[in-house]
Amino acid sequence: MPKHYFSLEAAQLNGTWLTIGVFDGVHRGHQELLRQLTAGAHANGAPAVVLTFAPHPAIVLAGRDIKSLTTPEERAQILFGLGIDTVVTIEFTRALADHSAEDFMAELKRHLGLKKLLIGYDFALGKGRAGNFERLTQIGEDLDYEVSAVEAFRLNGEIISSTLIRQQIVEGAVALAADKLGRPFFVAGPVIPGDGRGRTIGIPTANIDIPAEKVIPLNGVYACWGLVDGKRHRAVVNIGVRPTFTGGDVIPRVEAHLLEYSSDLYGKTVTLEFIERLRGEQKFPSVDALVTQIRNDIEKAKELLQ
User: Fold this and answer.
1) How far, in Å, CA of 200 to CA of 187, rounded?
2) Where in the chain is the domain with CATH 2.40.30.30?
3) CA 101 – CA 85 distance, rounded (Å)
4) In 91, 94, 105, 212, which residue has its Cα 20 to 30 A from 59's Cα atom?
């Protein structure tokens, strides 16, 4: 049974094969490293372990406003699906960043029983990022663990990064992002009350409460798969401020119309997988014009989601 710990102290493991990183999105580059980790660990009868951080280190160290591709729980579930046995998510703080590489690795040896460390091609940890491949290898000679580095994974000659994927999602290029992730980008949250306008025009929508730390695609209309209670439904999703009905700046809403779904969604958790952007957000001269366009959007989504 996979385990998710939220502190090093809670995880008392032995003989682990470990990798360390943020792994936001768990994209195809990450997946290659994880494939090597799980294959090697399980061939040697060892647990495959991922140590990851929240919030993103750049938020703490540089004050950057970084929205995540995955929440810690979402990330853990994806990792488990790839064969990882244990995920340890620890809070990233300035105090943690000030740990020397030697002290941090000694803690990992003590709590995780580290025997093998796999790292990415550009990995470094510890104060001043002094814990690069060479230094971690030297420390491993003292602490009795081995280190291997994994080459960069390239897609069409391009190194995949979480930063690039976030940028593509912000620009609405969800299909390009999905290619790099190896699956559709998704958001998930409970359905909360809206103003009910969709129902009055015959196209009911579910207002999804998305975690504040998640990146949201560019305002517009998208063809999506909506997952509710373990079942998939075709969906048209609008992200935006609904300019036909409202004026002025408001926080964008994520509203989903699930095709062929008629039950009450309030309180249920809905996951939206973004397949393709259909169009940008528009202000229509009348409600009738809006409804006509939404009907066209629904037909396009049906074709895309065959």
Assistant:
1) 26
2) 173-304
3) 25
4) 105
Round to whole Å and give the CA distance between 111 and 277: 46
Say if CB 286 and CB 186 are below 8 A apart: no
CB atoms < 10 A from the CB of 236, how many?
26
Give the separation between CA 24 and CA 78, rounded to whole angstroms: 11
Of 149, 133, 175, nearest to 32 by C-alpha is 149
Cβ neighbours for 94, distance < 8 A, ≥ 6 positions apart: 60, 61
pLDDT tens-digit readout, 93-119: 999 999 999 999 999 999 999 999 999
Structure tokens at 173: 């290029």
Helices and strands, number each (H, E), in the chain: 10, 14
CATH for the stretch 173-304:
2.40.30.30
Strand partners, 253: 240
CA distance 56 to 91: 9
Look-up of token digits 């493991």 = 13
Dihedrals phi, psi of 282, to nearest 5 degrees: -130, 155
What's the pLDDT score for residue 283? 85
User: Token match 């373990």: residue?
Assistant: 230
Q: How many CB atoms lie within 10 A of CB 165?
A: 25
pTM metric for this prediction: 0.92
Residues of the chain with CATH 3.40.50.620: 3-159
Strand partners, 17: 48, 116
Q: Which of 85, 108, 87 is nearest to 38 (CA)?
A: 85
Measured torsion, CA atoms of residues 170, 176, 179, 184, in degrees rounded to the nearest 10: 50
pLDDT tens for 146-156 read: 999 998 888 88
Q: Are 243 and 283 in contact (CB under 8 A)?
A: yes
CATH fold, domain 3-159, is Rossmann fold (3.40.50)
